[in-house]
Amino acid sequence: MEVKVSWNGPSGMSFRAETGSGHMVAMDGAPEGGGHNLAPRPMEMVLLGTGGCTAYDVVLILKRGREQVEGCDVTLKAERADTDPKVFTHVHFHFVVSGKNLRHAVVERAVNLSHDKYCSASIMLAKTAQITHTFEIVEV
């Protein structure tokens, strides 16, 4: 896996990132840091990637178990250290999984498997942050 991040120039603190799969992503800094607030911050991108990683796992686990999953949202709320390096110190994941006849134990197992075994991003974050998660099931 490879990505390239390039600074957009001296007029601010925005960057463009290109993934090895050919996708472009913009990042920007906060105005107080010289940015223009035109794109997500790099640390927000870390949370976005982690949310994508774990949501992917949960849906895949449920689909492989032949569950009738129709939706999966995950909201991540993070706290960071006050001093440099301002690593994440706590990240809470809240899943809203929707489908037909989803069983509590099966969804709980999918969430736990993602966090304990499959989601590389959340497992890496757990090296510096306390990771917690909750979920709810919505019948559709």
Automatic annotation (TrEMBL):
Transmembrane segments: none annotated. Pfam families: OsmC. It comes from the Bacteria. InterPro entries: KH_dom-like_a/b, OsmC/Ohr_fam, OsmC/Ohrsf. SUPFAM superfamilies: OsmC-like. NCBIfam families: PRK10738.1. PANTHER family: PROTEIN YHFA. This is OsmC family protein. It comes from Massilia cavernae.
